[in-house]
Design a protein that fits this description.
Blueprint: E1 2-7, H1 19-22, H2 27-40, E2 44-49, H3 53-61, E3 69-73, H4 82-90, E4 95-99, E5 121-124, H5 129-145
Parallel strand pairs: 1-2, 1-3, 3-4, 4-5
Helix pairs in contact: 2-5, 3-4
Length: about 150
């Protein structure tokens, strides 16, 4: 089982960007824990970070046939990108939306996700553990699907 983890804009700044909101862990540290948990459950992870909306759309579009599931933290694009929503919808690959912070407890503009409606679920508010929970959830989802 192979899972694609996509990280959107500014997540490369984790650890130094607003640590009171996003925590002190770097993206590499979070992805290391995600990979370790996935491996313990028999899955592999390919993790990508991009600040470019087009690259995220391309990666989602290339996922079918290469990945069994997607975990997506579209970051700010969550609230603005119809292109990413359309890519997830067209991909035929189950996707879980992830956020480090609880987007529903933050500024009003963050409450609306354009992507959530085409995902099998959303995890937010658990810091880096949101990703680990998403790995567990997508693996269980995929196992029940077979």
């Amino acid at each position: 089982m192979k899972i694609l983890v996509l990280n959107g804009p500014n997540l490369n700044l984790l650890g130094k960007r607003e640590p009171d909101v996003y925590g002190h862990s770097t993206l590499d540290e979070i992805m290391d824990s995600v990979k370790a948990r996935a491996e313990s459950l028999g899955a592999g992870i390919d993790a990508v970070q991009s600040n470019d909306e087009g690259e995220l759309v391309t990666r989602i579009g290339e996922a079918e046939g290469n990945f069994d599931g997607i975990i997506l933290n579209a970051a700010a694009y969550t609230h603005t990108s119809v292109a990413i929503r359309d890519a997830v919808s067209a991909s035929n690959v189950p996707c879980i939306e992830v956020h480090l912070s609880n987007i529903h407890a933050r500024e009003d503009f963050r409450h609306k996700s354009l992507i959530a409606g085409v995902c099998i679920g959303q995890l937010s508010g658990f810091g880096g553990n949101s990703y680990v929970l998403a790995v567990e959830a997508i693996i269980r989802y995929l196992e029940k699907k077979d």
